[in-house]
Amino acid sequence: MILYSSPPSPFGRKIKIALSCLGMRDEVTIKQTNTMDPEDDIRGVNPLGKIPALVVDDMVLFDSRTILDYLDARAGGGKILPASGPDRYAVMSMSALADGILDAAVLVIYEDRLRPEGMQVESFVTFQRDKIIRSLQGIPMERYESGAMPDIAEIGVACALDYLDFRKQVEWRDHAPHLVEWKDGFAAAVPGYADTMPSD
Prior knowledge:
By secondary structure, the protein is of the alpha+beta class. The chain has two domains: 2-74, Glutaredoxin (3-Layer(aba) Sandwich), CATH 3.40.30.10; 85-190, Glutathione S-transferase Yfyf (Class Pi), Chain A, domain 2. Helices cover 52% and strands 8% of the residues. The protein is built from eight helices and four strands. It has helices at residues 10-21, 42-45, 64-74, 85-114, 122-137, 152-167, 172-175, 179-189; strands spanning 2-5, 29-32, 53-56, 59-62. It has a four-stranded mixed sheet with strand order 2-1-3-4, with helices on one face. Helix 1 links the parallel strand 1 and strand 2 (29-32).
């Protein structure tokens, strides 16, 4: 398998952590990707030009949710995503909330980096930051208890918190102090956590 990703990407990081938790890290080659480079291979792999993308034989999977579902099934199912019932949908919904935080956080960065100097729309940035804050306050986690096998929602929340620390869109501890102990527990227990911290 080949994973197209980049060191700063929180969505790619979710996949890397899942691979470590599922014992699949050695099955994957990570191809460093620059989505802003029109010559990068990613545009031929994923027409959207987005990461992560996972090449499995002659199949290409993209969007982190799809890849996580695939990896869980490949590992036998029910490992990082409950197999069925209310628990599955609760985890999927919390995972979507974490992804929403990340989507808003990335848009804040894009507004600063991609718009010409002086043309950034502050009301748009405020709108995205408000979404992040509301979502952080809506996460009920307080103590991490899943050991070395987190679910996809827990992986997503950890990646979101670390990405906010990395890019500084919002000081999440000011708005969700209840998540500090949870994140510390996750960091201490989950394989691949330290090795996948976002970097430029």
